Amino acid sequence: MAIAPPPTPNPKPSLSARINSLVAQTRLGKRFKLSERNTNFTTELRAGTTTFLTMAYILAVNASIIADSGGTCTVSDCIPLCSDPNISLTRCPTHLLTRPDESCKYPPVNPGYAACVEKTRRDLIVATVASSLIGCTIMGLFANLPLALAPGMGANAYFAYSVVGFHGSGTIPYGTALTAIFLEGLIFLFISAVGFRAKLAKLVPRPVRVSSSAGIGLFLAFIGLQNSEGIGLIGYSPSTLVTLAGCPRSDLTALGPVMTAVNGTVSLVPGGNVSDNILCLKNRMESPTLWLGLVGFVIIAYCLIKNIKGAMIYGIIFVTVISWFRNTTVTVFPNTELGNARYSYFKKVVDLHVIKSTAGALSFKGMGKGTFWEALFTFLYVDILDTTGTLYSMARFAGFLDLNGDFEGQYFAFMADASSIVVGSLLGTSPVTAFIESSTGIREGGRTGLTALTVAGYFFLAFFFTPLLASIPPWAVGPPLILVGVMMMRCVVEINWDDMREAIPAFVTILLMPLTYSIAYGLIGGIATYLVLHIWEWGEELVGKFVIKKNLKGVANANENGNHHIDHDQGDDKAIEV
Asked: pTM of the full predicted structure?
């Protein structure tokens, strides 16, 4: 008689599985609908970590961009200099002292003004952290969506370089520009509260709405390929605008519009700005940081192919840690004055900085100028189109959109970013928006507000660990941005490419977003193209309806007159019979 083998014991569930099962049954799991959205606690934590690491660059980048405006720094922050560089300031005779004037703010920047700008930059790192923390918390708690918020790229550049100008050379001062953002945020909050923003969003034609996800994907990939926020594979070309780059940092140079005076003096054109180091002079494809970034790209791509969880995190951490070693060709801390300053800040590890200058810097002077209202309405329409477009694209990417084009929690999602704009302006930063890097967390499985709250938790830690987070190099962030662009391209299959009335607006939307460096301009171009291509058809329908209505009215009148004659004849017949 055969003896039956003993039953195989059920394998003991892993620690993460037990945690997920436990949390799903708690009030927390039910509040965030973990089971309903087919996700779990650890997945949400991983998704939030991925999102934060992908967007952590904004801490340093946003602060650096807005600090270029000079913030609250003025000529009074400049210090007197000795016209003889060989004599120290303390021993400089009075007749050799150069009193600072307006030119002290521009290259070569006065040391006193430069020190003020550096303090402003650190204030702005904290302002970026605080506004992002508040926005992510509102989004997670009330909207229950896996979307992170932070000051948006593009809007910050417009604020710093077009409105305030480099070191205050623009049309309105820093404090007045913050007032424009503050008032714009209140208007934005109002139209979101009354539900008008959702109606505006639904007016966007379907092919433009669908294609916007692909356009944002290409926009992300374009950012990830550049030098300032990516791996540096592409760069500026005087003849073709963009070209293959990837040259070492020592072979990059800045550009600026200059003019030559009669005496041969070369100076910057009034209102002109000097770019970052964007022109590659020689040694293309020889940048060590480019190849390190490409290694990170391969790591993330391989993990995605094998469906390994946390793919984005592994790539970012690998590249970042290697870049933290000094005296290497890929270090983020080169042996320069700026590199040494960053390394000194990095070594602090923990630093709690208190905002001293940018918080509450609003100024209501200059509101009567046309440039003030121009800036206000520009910020408003960009936020309406850009932020709303991003929210709908992320909702589509996560699979939240229903047949009517709505998604659960959209009212509070709209309120979250609108209120964050108001908070950000009070802290001194540019408009806060839903970040397209949220797509990296969604790719990792984030489906609830716990992802956003995890990002908020990291931003809270950033109050204390800003030196570490501000040291994540752009070539570590570039690879995940490029690969997220790959994932977001899949929506193009929903476009009816056989119908040119849909295909052309969709293509224009996709094309303009990366090439104009603006989600808003892509949406505007797509909507305008859609209207132009349909206006003849709509005109024919309108004329047709008018003609049909007129003909029907004529037929109705004729029938009425005919019935009147018939009734009259019948009356006559009845009179004869009587």
From this structure: 0.71
